[in-house]
Task: structure prediction
Amino acid sequence: MSIFPLPPGSTIGVLGGGQLGRMLAMAAARLGFDTVILTPEAGACASRVAARTIAAAYDDPEGLDTLAQFADVVTFEFENVPAAAVEGLAALGVETAPGPLALAIAQDRVDEKIFLNASGAPTVDFAAIDSAEDILAALDRLGAPALLKTRREGYDGKGQTWVESHADAAAAFERIGRAPAILEARADFVRELSVIAARGRDGDIVAYPLGENHHEGGVLRRTSAPAEVSAALTAQAQTIAARILTKLDYVGVIGIELFELKDGQLLVNEIAPRVHNTGHWTLDGCEVDQFEQHIRAVAGWPLGPVTPLAHVEMENLLGSEIEAWPTLAREAQARVWFYGKGRPRPGRKMGHVNRLRPLKD
Amino acid sequence: MSIFPLPPGSTIGVLGGGQLGRMLAMAAARLGFDTVILTPEAGACASRVAARTIAAAYDDPEGLDTLAQFADVVTFEFENVPAAAVEGLAALGVETAPGPLALAIAQDRVDEKIFLNASGAPTVDFAAIDSAEDILAALDRLGAPALLKTRREGYDGKGQTWVESHADAAAAFERIGRAPAILEARADFVRELSVIAARGRDGDIVAYPLGENHHEGGVLRRTSAPAEVSAALTAQAQTIAARILTKLDYVGVIGIELFELKDGQLLVNEIAPRVHNTGHWTLDGCEVDQFEQHIRAVAGWPLGPVTPLAHVEMENLLGSEIEAWPTLAREAQARVWFYGKGRPRPGRKMGHVNRLRPLKD
Result:
């Protein structure tokens, strides 16, 4: 007999102790769930709003055993969870949501692009790279400049570099540490959008209104949502989301980054099998935010509405920008989310602010 | 030099570990604060979202000493905090907000009524009672039936009884345990309203739109907000709130229960120097809910807007009503707040549900 839907009083396990885990724990508490965090980081910001923390490496058998004792289901706040952790939990009879397939796909940029195209979710052209010679051959097909990224790890612009020309191939491969990589054709996009979608255990799928994103140096600066888009563009994004979620037999929230081309076509840039920075606007802009939506899905509850109540401009607070808190606290329409991370390091995500204005009719 | 406004990363102490403490801790976390809970109750529901819990009686010197070590400021989730606790914390150099005056006033129903009337906040007629003979004399002036309440303690209809006639006086005094009491004239009201207001450390005052309340057996069942009221009635309530808050030199959120008489006059039924059950609608109906507003005030931040984003029908879930959670989880417009209290006891507040609908123009 299925343990789902989980009754209030059940415990949600979360791998990872950062701000996403923190906001997941707060959403879980709202629904009457306890949260247990497994993280190797001492004093993790998620731990301070969780019922319990297990201090262990993600693949530590003893830590996973303890997690399995307390948690009725386990989710994660980042996609680079070791496969050993998910397998270890499965062996202990505890399900991880999203499941192993979504994790495996999201952990390898080549596998991800192959999967997306096979699902009917178009991407830029790309090539798998194992040597500088591979780059030269791929450039003939993809054109220069092209974007070289490690296949695994890397986020917020880390582990990637532009290959400016054939002459730059060898140096570019050095710059990413000669790791197995992907070379991506440059997308000639007019703007970056994202869709935050969710799939429940009953197969139900919902998608929030699109967000328009602005990155700087590979890091998200701002999301504006609901984005000003045509109904056709929204429908296109929803179709893409539904194809990906269905094909992955997905459970939970997913973040899908999109490029909008001049001709109105959407390409998928990347997917994140978790709650997503470009969905933080939902915390103040929607009846049910992405964190509650994720907990609902993971716990086997029906999904909630994705109706927006306000227009939101979400801005990340990086590093010392958090020191502007007295000004932000005075700003009437600014709803602040501070992550409790202590001393700011340059570029570190310390919080975000959602600026609200009424929805247009 | 003042420690206020407290920077993110500071710690808010909360006396009490119930659902109000739980929702205060979640609001504090949003603003980047840690929360430390002091409660004699093991496994308190607030503890499971707080950074730290001190298990001690409210007036335990050692517990208060530990609280003072961790907390930059202390607040509470119920008004019957022992005066010794507030004095003990003050002696240790830690401020309590709201302050000792608000607590003292709210702990004695006679003092409260005297204070309210002196502040220009009208109440029903009343008399202080120390004997059955006092009741007889007071009935001559107030009329029968009249409501007899203990001066101290008592909440949700506990410690009170109707005196039906002169003949009932002695028995009524027995029913409340012959404790020092207050006899209140019956208010001939057309409905019960409440105003949730807040005052910041800078003296700024805000008030949320009024709620219309429905009690059963002395316990709140439902609040509908924003209530359908005239601008004049709202102004009257705001004036009452401002008078009370100013006179108390108050810091934080206050709940003020009101009777609306046939002629449109408002009388104050009682005040609660804390976040209030009739303000739970703000959790989903307003940009800044009453819990964040309270933390903002206590931390010395500017107050936030009290703008409603939706109309909300708040319904308390008492005792086994929580067992309807699968139905509530399926209800699209129902936002649930479950308190994580474990096994339901009859009448115990186990959660509440906010049902949203668009605001009327």
Observations:
- Chain A has a mean pLDDT of 96.
- Chain A has three domains: 11-96, 125-185, 189-357.
